[in-house]
Every structure is written in C-alpha cells, then in structure tokens.
C-alpha cells in the first residue's frame, strides 16, 4: 500500500477532534506532522525507529498514538468519518456480510 500524507481537507476534518493544546507548559509538537508519521508507520509497516525524521520523533508519534487510543480520540474520528460517509450516501447498510473463520483444534483440546 502506498503512503500519502493527509490532504488539507482530511486535516480540516480531523483537527476538531484532537485535544486542545495545553494552556500552560510546553505546547505539543505539530499534530499534523505527528499524525502523518503515525500513518506512515501504520501504512508501510515499518518499525517506529524507521519513521522518517521529517515527521518528528518516533517516540513522540508512538506515545501520541497510544495516548489518543486510550483517550478515545481515534474512536471519535472514526465515528465522525462513518457518520459523514453515511449521511453523504457513501456508506449503506443495505448489504451486510459477516465473515467467520474456523480453526481446528488438536484432538482433545477445546
């Protein structure tokens, strides 16, 4: 899969769902740059240490991914994307497919 950075439209959609910058103390590194770094790692499958330096520190990107996952930020973005796609007619629940896999166990195991 080919990696592409966030477009301006994609960024404008995502930005409102991100936590605000702290009012005191040090400001967060540029969110758009870090998100592009996170997406680079997730799309390409590279190690965090191999993330291009133009996206900042791999440790910062990993921490931001973890923290925002725990805080539900990514869930909020996905929900908004789903709602927008549904309201625009790009997502339909007329056809639903369920896929299941069966894994055989060795004799006597459950």
Name its key features.
single chain, mainly alpha, 4 helices, 45% helix, extended
Description:
It is a single chain. The chain is mainly α and 110 residues long. It has helices at residues 8-14, 31-44, 58-71, 73-87. Helix 2 crosses helix 3. It is extended. It starts with 7 loop residues before the first helix and ends in a 23-residue tail after the last helix. The mean pLDDT is 90.
Summarize the structure.
By secondary structure, the protein is an all-alpha fold. It has helices at residues 8-14, 31-44, 58-71, 73-87.
How is the main sheet built?
none
The helix-and-strand class reads mainly alpha
Number of helices: 4
How much beta, percentage-wise?
under 5%
Radius of gyration: 19 Å
Shape: extended
Number of strand segments = 0
Distance between the termini: 37 Å
Global mean pLDDT: 90
Considering DSSP H and I runs of 4 or more, what fraction of the residues is helical?
Answer: 40-55%
Helix and strand string, N-terminal first? HHHH
Flag low-confidence runs: none
List the helices and strands and how they pair.
Layout: H1 8-14, H2 31-44, H3 58-71, H4 73-87
């Amino acid at each position: 899969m080919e990696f592409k950075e966030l477009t301006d439209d994609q960024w404008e959609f995502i930005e409102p769902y991100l936590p605000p910058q702290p009012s005191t103390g040090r400001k967060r590194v540029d969110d758009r740059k870090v998100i592009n770094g996170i997406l680079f790692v997730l799309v390409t499958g590279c190690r965090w240490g191999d993330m291009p330096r133009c996206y900042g520190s791999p440790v910062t990107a990993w921490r931001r991914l973890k923290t925002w996952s725990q805080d539900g930020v990514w869930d909020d973005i996905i929900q908004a994307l789903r709602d927008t796609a549904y309201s625009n007619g790009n997502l339909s629940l007329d056809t639903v497919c369920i896929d299941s896999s069966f894994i055989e166990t060795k004799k006597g195991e459950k």
